[in-house]
Amino acid sequence: PNDASPSAPRAFTRSVGDLFGELGLSLDAHQGSALTVTSPIDGSTLASLRTDSADEMDAMVARARTAFLDWRAVPAPHRGELVRRFGLLVREHKEALSQLLTIENGKILTEARGEVQEVIDICDYAVGLSRQLFGMTIASERAEHRLTEYWHPLGVLGLISAFNFPAAVWAWGTTVALVCGDGAIWKPSEKTPLTALAFAGLLQKVAADYEQAPENLVQVALGDAACGIALADHPDVAVVSATGSVRMGQDVGVRVQRRFGRPILELGGNNAAIVTPSADVALALRGTIFAATGTCGQRCTTLRRLIVHEDIRESFVRRLIAAVGTLNIGSPLDEATHVGPLIDKAAFDGMQRALDAARSQGGIVHGGERIEQAGSPEAYYVRPAIVEMPGQTEIVREETFAPILYILSYTELDQAIALQNGVSQGLSSCIFTRDVLEAERFQSALGSDCGIVNVNIGTSGAEIGGAFGGEKVTGGGRVSGSDSWKNYMRRATATVNYSTSLPLAQGVKFDL
Ligand code: UN1
């Protein structure tokens, strides 16, 4: 039901202290005054934590490097055993971890459970991978020679993650890096350090009980951007994986590249759906609504642009606006809620600025208003906005991290594809069609220029098995899935001569 004045958020049934207790962890060693953690559900304070200084980062990297030197010698399947045990522990505590994630991040419980499931899934994936870190043999041009490619552990991974997927993105990189033989440091978002301490705490606990795991294999750096910069600049951090804004990635990527470290960047998206006249309308509606409003529009894969065929535009948009009007907006702990709060006031202000800009650029805004919660002035709940635009104006080409769906229309498919590709970001895209030619064209070299190209599903909710990331200002990195494990290893090409002569490559003669 559409409830214009939703009930005040339920008091949390579980406190953060209780949840940590259930996980067998304690926050005692992390207490401090530098970082106040609040819940977006009602703005209440959850914890006050100490942070790490830039000087402490040096010592942390040195410890990680020492751990790596031991860990690289452990056989990969035995490294997988560590991840297997972690995955079992996450399974055991799935509900408590999901609640903590919801309390700290504000995503609805079913999505929090989905995120914890992603952590479990990537553990299974990484365990399998630990027996499949294949190299290959290559045909040598010389007689009685063998050319082989090896994949070896790389070094220390520094992983910078965002508030919106406070656990899964870390797990994608870290579990894979661990089976690849790397050490790992995690710099989580300052908005979600508790989720980080919980997941890393469980992994540390498993590592402490695993005789083959060295000390300090997995560490957490709490702090502001300076901690991330310290990782980006440090010559002993071999690979830096960063998920977040384009602006952050431009800084981190350049810093890592300057010292010839390896950056993996997964940055902004401005994801579009093309809805064609042959689309299954009910399916397209459900797909677009979840993609546009899930996680309150705060996924990097959130649907931000809908490019609908002129012939069906009016009826489709009318149904979309009506459906968004029926979404339950309120406490994410309430199982009936569809859309929880924005992360904070800055996100709300950014959303309102974008809506004002859209209006001034000719847009007609439906929804988008704040929904006040009695007694929680610091909680920012909004009705997702549907914004009819006269064209792909400046604001439409920007990523605003909030639930705003811009509506554009088209008449020819190639025009829709040009609009879809006509932004600087290139993360995710989709088409709703039952026409096989349209579906194929969209996925082809002439179609979407994004890293993720979906047919008859929305832009968000990628599975862990596929390479995740995108092109253009999205950064080009693939954090997990497919063969992206290679990002966490180094390649060595070995040529072995098992003859008694010494033929040189390319037929070079050098007779002594
Ligand atoms: C992100 O928002 O940074 O594809 C990650 C999805 C999720 C991950 C999103 N599996 O929507």
TrEMBL record:
Carries keyword Zinc? no
Q: Which PROSITE patterns does this UniProt record tie to the protein? A: ALDEHYDE_DEHYDR_GLU
Enzyme Commission number(s) of this protein:
1.2.1.3
**Pfam families this protein is in?**
Aldedh
EC main class here is oxidoreductase
Q: Where is the active site?
A: 266
Keyword Protease belongs to the record: no
- Keywords in alphabetical order, please: NAD, Oxidoreductase
**Residue ranges constituting the Aldehyde dehydrogenase domain according to the UniProt record:** 33-491
Question: Which PANTHER family has this protein been placed in?
Answer: ALPHA-AMINOADIPIC SEMIALDEHYDE DEHYDROGENASE
This protein's assembly is summarised as:
Homotetramer.
Report the sequence similarity comment from the record: Belongs to the aldehyde dehydrogenase family.
- What is the name of this protein? aldehyde dehydrogenase (NAD(+))
Protein source organism? Sphingomonas rustica
